[in-house]
Amino acid sequence: MEDIKCCVVSCDKPLDAAYWEAQYEAKTTGWDLGKVSPPIQTYVDTVTDKNCSILIPGCGNSYEAEYLLEQGFTNSTVIDIAPTPVAVLKEKFKNNSNIQIILGDFFEHQGKYDLVLEQTFFCALPPTMRQKYVWKMHQLLADEGILAGLLFNRTFESGPPFGGSKEEYEKLFAAAFDFLKMEVSENSIAPRADSELFIELKKNNQVVVNLYEFEGITCSGCMETITEKLIAIDGILNVSMNSTFAEVLIVSKNEIAIQALQHVISYDEKYKIKKINP
Ligand SMILES: C[S@@+](CC[C@H](N)C(=O)[O-])C[C@H]1O[C@@H](n2cnc3c(N)ncnc32)[C@H](O)[C@@H]1O
After folding, report:
1. Boundary (domain end) residue, out of 203, 224, 242
2. Which domain of life is it from (predicted)?
């Protein structure tokens, strides 16, 4: 992709605050559109409640937040782990009480939002964190909350950005969210044309979404067997294991006792499951 270049820092480094800050310092920010993302602009134009609470995670220079302010939205929060873009935003929007600008980790952030806008944040995370993203997003959204924005519908040789597909996202978000929209975006910027999906996912507040540490799986065959055993438990609606088999996202109609989960996997004593606290 023309507009998305890999980093100056070796990509096998952890994608932590130091990594992202180095990109901003070196100005290797090929993802930065320099303007509001057109599909997000189109979406924001449909939002009628200007007082709804909105979060933009991994906001970078956040032209989306600027657009929200221009349109009269009064309750936006943006968060990024890298100090440079946060400092720029703090200066740009100083004395503006309609926006809260946070330097911090999305996964440690607490709050409740009516709307979360996704713009090249999901694809910037290591793919191992996708189940954690769904879990955290479910926690941060209010009961009728919406996650809207863009996800890549293509693969990349290396990342970030890390790609994905509609099929993968449907499995990942299943049961935790209702799918209002997941279709190829019509007005992506030219270099991303036909390679982004616009998503509008509504939090399913009738379910419990938990994340667990999982120990003992070494191959995808075992992962499939474990997944089948877990999904067969009464009340479980979706089971999604992360790509290193170290975390599993479970969506259920009600809280499932840890003993019930451990019981179905205990046919092999090396398998262990432990709930991660929010
Ligand atoms: C590819 S950039 C996208 C920035 C912005 N959304 C845009 O489109 O210009 C990904 C951003 O996510 C931020 N980021 C990565 N991991 C994060 C985390 N755990 N919490 C908050 N921000 C994070 C990075 O610092 C970076 O600004």
Report:
1. 203
2. Bacteria
Secondary structure (3-state) at 150? strand
- 3 in a structural domain: no
Question: DSSP E strands: which ranges in the chain?
Answer: 54-57, 76-80, 99-103, 113-118, 141-152, 177-184, 196-203, 208-215, 236-241, 247-252, 272-275
pLDDT for 183-235, tens place per residue? 999 999 999 999 999 999 999 999 999 999 999 999 999 999 999 999 999 99
- 166 and 219 assigned to the same domain: no
Ligand 1 proximal residues by C-beta, below 6 Å: 20, 31-32, 57-61, 79-82, 85, 105-107, 119-121, 124
Overall domain count for the chain: 2
Pocket test for ligand 1, best of 81, 101, 123 (most atoms within 8 A of CB): 81
Assigned domain for 4 exists: no
45 and 170 housed in the same domain: yes
User: Per-residue pLDDT tens for 80-124?
Assistant: 999 999 999 999 999 999 999 999 999 999 999 999 999 999 999
